[in-house]
Each structure stands twice: as structure tokens, then as C-alpha cells.
Amino acid sequence: MDPRSILAVDHAINKYLSVGPMIGTFGLSVGPMIGTFGVYGSAFDLYGESEFVDEIFFPHPSHWTWGHVVVITGFGVQGIYPFWEFQNSYGPLWRGAARGFGQLYAVYVLSLYMVLQWLSCMSCRL
């Protein structure tokens, strides 16, 4: 998958949505963040049992609590790189001049997409 292709990103998102909620790790300039497309925080107050598979975090369905949230507020392309804009629940003081907003670039979706491909292959073998 070419992470710069909007069609490839769209395909990855549709594949992601077909298997239900999942949380992936995205390396951002402010440090690692765990997120879905309704992105949730990582080292920021995430509690519960989990399993990590190639940088993908699967929450234990019976008990987990979120203490931090971001909301996807838009989509754009900078140069050739598609991204989602999000607003952080920490408020307008987070990131100074950005006033609480950040970007999640589609290139960070690549590892999520690759793990989904791996999971599909594994489910075919069962």
C-alpha cells in the first residue's frame, strides 16, 4: 500500500471498519499516541487488560476505561500526504499556537493496515 495514496488510505479505512473497533499506535511529533479514527490517548490514563500485536493494541472487551480523548475534526492533504485533523480534549492550551489541534498523517495508518492484512490471512487459516 502506498500510504500517500488517498484511494489506498480509503481502502485501508474500509477494511479497518469491516473488522470492528481496534486501536493502533501512531508515532506523532508529540510522542506516541494510541488511537482509532475517533482517536483515544495512550500513556494518558489508559487502563485495562490488553494484548499488543505488532504495535496494534487490542483492548480487553470486558474492562477498560478511557481518561483522554481526541475528536477527528477534519481531513486534508499537505503536499501529497493525507491527514486527519483532531482536537485534543486537553483544551486550547495543548500545543500552544495550534490551540488544541493536531494532525494524524495517513502514513501512520500503514502499520495498522499491514496488521489487518496479517489478521485476515490468519483467520483464513483457522
UniProtKB/TrEMBL annotation:
In its UniProt record, which GO terms are filed under biological process?
proteolysis
Q: Does this UniProt record's set of keywords contain Transmembrane? A: yes
Q: Which InterPro entries match?
A: Papain-like_cys_pep_sf, Peptidase_C1A_C
- Gene Ontology molecular-function annotations: cysteine-type peptidase activity
Domain of life of the native organism: Eukaryota
TM segments?
21-43, 63-84, 96-116
Q: Which UniProt keywords apply?
A: Membrane, Transmembrane, Transmembrane helix
Q: Where in the numbering of this chain does the Peptidase C1A papain C-terminal domain appear?
A: 30-95
Pfam hit, one: Peptidase_C1
Q: Could you tell me what this protein is called?
A: Peptidase C1A papain C-terminal domain-containing protein
